[in-house]
Amino acid sequence: METEMVENRNDKHLIYTSILNELKAQRLITFPLLVTNFTWFARIAITTAFLGRLGELSLAGGTLGGTFANVTGFAVLSGLSVAMEPICGQAYGAKNFKLLHKTLVMSIFLLLLASIPISFLWLNVDKILIQLGQQKDLVIVVKRYLLFLLPDLVIQSILYPLKAYLSTQNQVVPIMLSSVLGLAFHIPVNVVLSKAKGLEGVSMGVWLSDLLVTLLLAFYAVVAEHGKVEKWKEGGWWEQGVQDWKRLLKLCGPCCLTTCLEWWCYEILMLLAARLPNAKQSIGVLAIVVNFDYLLYSVMISLATSASIRVSNELGANQARTAHRSAYISLGASVLLGFIGGSIMIAARNSWGSLFSQQKEITRNVKKMLLIMATMEVFNFPLVVCGGIVRGTARPNLAMYANLTGFYLFALPVAAILAFKFHLGVAGILIGFVVGCIICLFLLLIFIWRIDWDEEASKARMLTSTEDINNQEDEKSRNNNAVGQAQ
């Protein structure tokens, strides 16, 4: 009896220790990513502030231009680069550095290729917006802003893959430091360029800051690779085969679509608000509420990326049980953080609206809407982390199906019905999105619950061992050629 009690105590201690170790591992990834995401939001706020100093038309045109750039360009590039996470994460876990190298090169090439049609779209933004009924003076400003933002497509085509390449190897501190330096550079460059070139200068400030971050990360990656001789010697940078492209493109589709669906959903939400009877006030209220959600989203996406990295690394290392534990600990942490985030939103609802507007009607409505939004955050935190978990298993299509069902088949129709037919306005739109969020989370939880982790580890082993098979075939071919020449 005493022996059993000792064994039970030891088992509990092992479980407790493993949970603490996992939380520590995730903290080391999550915190630097969180700082990185905060710097990104801070840069958006700084850009908006400098646009505001140039006048109302520049603010409206620059903001609309930035939104158009995000929806049609950066969402696509970001989504395509997300496909690197499962491949590079599992390759790093399996110590297959050749696969890491070739995936980085392929992703950069793919994003540069995708930038070509995006560039043509931006160059014709005036025709598109005029067809959508936008005012001509505003459209001219939007086109000027996007014209000077074009270099950022090339820069982001390198920056997104570099971030994924380093983060999947748990090298997140360099990403954080380079982002902080980029933010520090963003302020003076905007001061100088906004005075010298106005709107065009603010647009240039965006890609110049991104260029600095890209150069810093590229320099670090080269130095770090040379410092680890065994990684550099494996090479593989230019040894892409048909199977390598198939593997990457198979993940690119659902990853890109999932990211775009998320980004587009918020834009559709704004379009719905624009059709309400008191459109200006509704958009203002919704924008203020969503700004709070953006702050919390930076925490969610950091935790989700951490979960994706941990799961993919462990599956690549053929540690199915550890991957399973990492996934469920991430999920547990997200539930706790969801309640904390919702509570913070409720606590701040009396003062948040007044930070953006002094109109009593707007601040009163913001106060009401934050209660609904706080409910959404409770479900949104675990939802975003679930997306990270399925990415880590190289099954992003699950998140894509959940997003399509939850947000596009349920959230948007429910939001439209409640907002317009039942005259609930902004509250109806947000309630619709809460419904979509719950359905989306429910579907992803079912998907994750049904995952066979041993099978996923086997799939990861097959994915990362393809290189070994190719190497063996190449070696056999070289040997046969050598024998033939000798004969």
From TrEMBL:
| Tagged with keyword Transmembrane helix | yes
InterPro entries, sorted = MATE_euk, MATE_fam
TM stretches of this protein: 29-52, 64-84, 104-125, 172-193, 205-223, 285-307, 327-348, 369-392, 398-420, 427-449
Annotated Gene Ontology cellular components are:
membrane
Compartments annotated for it: namely: Membrane
Coarsely, its chief localization is membrane
Q: Name one Pfam family in it.
A: MatE
- How would you describe this protein's topology in the membrane? Multi-pass membrane protein
Q: Which UniProt keywords apply?
A: Membrane, Transmembrane, Transmembrane helix
One GO BP: xenobiotic detoxification by transmembrane export across the plasma membrane
Q: Which GO terms describe its molecular function?
A: antiporter activity; xenobiotic transmembrane transporter activity
Superkingdom: Eukaryota
Q: Which family does it belong to?
A: Belongs to the multi antimicrobial extrusion (MATE) (TC 2.A.66.1) family.
Q: What is this protein called?
A: Protein DETOXIFICATION
